[in-house]
Design brief:
The chain is α/β, with parallel strands linked by helices and about 300 residues long. It has twelve helices and ten strands. A six-stranded parallel beta sheet has the order 7-6-8-9-5-10. Strands 1-2 form a two-stranded antiparallel ribbon. A two-stranded antiparallel sheet has the order 3-4. α3 packs across α4, α6 crosses α7 and α7 crosses α8. The longest helix is centred in the middle third of the chain and has 19 residues.
Length: about 300
Amino acid sequence: MAGLLGNADEFLRIAEQSFPDTSVVVRGNQITLDGPDADTLAKLFREWIVLLESGERLDSGGVNRTIEMIKADISPSDVLTSRIVKASRGRYVKPKTAGQKRYSDAIGSNVITFGIGPAGTGKSYLAVAQAVQALQDKSVNRIILTRPAVEAGERLGFLPGDLMAKVDPYLRPLYDALYDMLEPETVGRYLERGTIEVAPLAFMRGRTLNSSFIILDEAQNTTSEQMKMFLTRIGFGSRAVITGDVTQVDIAEGRSGLAGLERLLLGIEGVAFVHLTRRDVVRHRIVSDIIAAYERDEQARTS
């Protein structure tokens, strides 16, 4: 019951606030529910029990996400007990929201998957996890991580070093995800052998990428020409994941190669678009609140 209700009944209080018209009475190991949402709340508690029995630990963020899933008629245990890859230190990388589960499933069943959504939704992290799993399964021979060398207010020419040294900071988020899933020695060995390649998007021109898992990160900063070039690099036995946030375009005049692409590629077999929202943000709660504030401001200016 302590794991179910939380420290000082924290999880119980969250549940009561989410279903204010239903009363919850706890006596010993018995929970009595009465009200219009009693059945839904009972399902929520049963799902928490399944998660605890499977070895999952509940926290306030996870509890709030399970409540959102229950309200959307989605089983939290189906989402939160699925595993993508076993990372370093013995833990597993898992989706934490229903949107992340849809995204992970789409990557596994399509040749090209677009993950579109705001910061903190796990677009890049989950894509790297799927890439590492594919490499470990030997379904691909290498991982290629790329992104356009564009950043707000920055110019590459002012950075020291050769081209790779200049673009390395822009690729750092992909490195971070790799080091979170593989031991540093393993990453170093893969990089030396070319099993993992990290390069700016410009390096993709003229290549045909066979038996590869390719991730294009920050795709909102590609031009239409760059996006076409990238999509036509994909060879036999390869999969590609393209991630981006169309609200954070940093290229000149905002001419993003990601915008309008879903309409263009609609109906092509093996291509999937998954839209993540602020409900899929798994960073600090304040990140979701900030995104919501920007969304309200955008709606106010366009209405």
